[in-house]
Write a structure and sequence with these properties.
Blueprint: H1 3-16, H2 29-38, H3 44-57, H4 61-76, H5 82-100, H6 108-112, H7 119-128, H8 139-147, H9 156-166, H10 172-185
Helix pairs in contact: 2-7, 3-4, 4-5, 8-9, 8-10
Length: about 210
């Protein structure tokens, strides 16, 4: 994709949604961190159904420590891998209290040292909480990066590095959300909604769907 096409690509996405937001529900940076950890291999809607009651009853790391691993598991048992995730949430809550004064650290290394937190989760927190222009490559962004030819790669790490170079600087802050939402609702995995895609004419994807094939 040519530089001018990339500029137009994000200009259109920005025009349609100037202030994109995560679809995970949270009230504090800590709650966002927990929600993102729980969202691995799960839908945002599924996570929100579980974290609604959890955060209402136990909103802080201190409260989750008191609740304990088994108690956390009881709240999130509708989410895949809930036992492992409950263990990680309990452990990261303790580390945040004991090592970071109860606050989510503004440091990539410190974030990635937390149980259940990898590069993607750290990128989400750094972007949403601390305003850093990071791009967390999930399945949606990975697909869009490859389909559009904007950031082709066989691994999330490769796609991330290419996107950081490909996305125009003016759009880097919100690129993460625009790409996720575009992949979730338009450039879908099985049947991309090419007939309604606002950037279809900029995309070189050869297997575009048509009105007839939908």
């Amino acid at each position: 994709m040519k530089p001018a096409d990339r500029e137009e690509f994000f200009r259109r996405l920005a025009a349609a949604d100037p202030e994109p937001k995560t679809e995970l529900h949270y009230a504090t940076p800590f709650q966002l961190l927990v929600a993102v950890v729980l969202s691995a291999q799960a839908t945002d809607k599924g996570v929100n159904r579980a974290t609604g009651p959890l955060f209402l009853d136990h909103p802080t790391p201190h409260a989750l420590i008191a609740l304990g691993e088994a108690g956390i598991a009881a709240y999130i048992q509708t989410i895949g891998l809930y036992k492992t995730k409950a263990k990680n949430v309990a452990a990261l809550s303790r580390i945040i209290v004991e090592q970071h004064g109860g606050e989510v650290p503004h440091d990539r290394a410190a974030l990635e040292a937390l149980p259940g937190v990898g590069r993607k989760t750290a990128n989400v927190v750094l972007n949403i909480v601390f305003g850093e222009p990071t791009i967390a490559v999930d399945t949606h962004i990975f697909r869009v990066g490859n389909r559009t030819g904007m950031a082709p790669g066989k691994t999330p790490a490769v796609v991330e590095q290419k996107l950081l170079k490909a996305v125009p600087a003016a759009y880097r802050q919100h690129a993460h959300h625009w790409l996720i939402l575009h992949g979730r609702y338009t450039c879908k995995a099985r049947t991309p909604d090419c007939p309604t895609c606002r950037v279809a004419d900029l995309c070189p994807y050869k297997e575009k769907t048509s009105v007839q094939s939908k």
